[in-house]
Write a structure and sequence with these properties.
By secondary structure, the protein is an all-alpha fold. The protein has one domain. It has 5 helices and no strands. It is globular and about 50 Å long. The mean pLDDT is about 95.
């Protein structure tokens, strides 16, 4: 399996609800998504400290936003196939997480 097909399978499985909601929310979004955001924010601060162009700094800082939006919608879609308070809380948590990582 090529890297591109593995990446496509990753996104497809999350978009189509093929991943358990707990894994999607906790591992993919909260742990990995937050780590990506922190890493790129640190990189942006380093670039800013090196006095590189502001456009580059902002591009690096906001680079994970499309992935963040994807993860949030994937959680919403997967939670929509479930019922109960847990699914509702994860939908709310995904929304709050998106706001937090975009604003911070």
């Amino acid at each position: 399996m090529t890297i591109m097909s593995r990446v496509a399978a990753f996104f497809r499985s999350r978009w189509l609800g093929g991943v358990p909601l707990d894994r999607l929310f906790w591992r993919d979004m909260v742990v990995v998504g937050t780590a990506i955001n922190v890493a790129l924010s640190v990189a942006a601060l380093i670039l800013l400290g090196l006095k590189l162009p502001l456009a580059l700094v902002l591009a690096v800082h906001f680079a994970p936003v499309p992935y963040n939006i994807f993860l949030t919608f994937a959680v919403w879609r997967t939670a929509g196939n479930s019922s109960g308070a847990k699914a509702s809380l994860m939908t709310l948590g995904a929304t709050l997480w998106l706001i937090l990582v975009v604003v911070a």
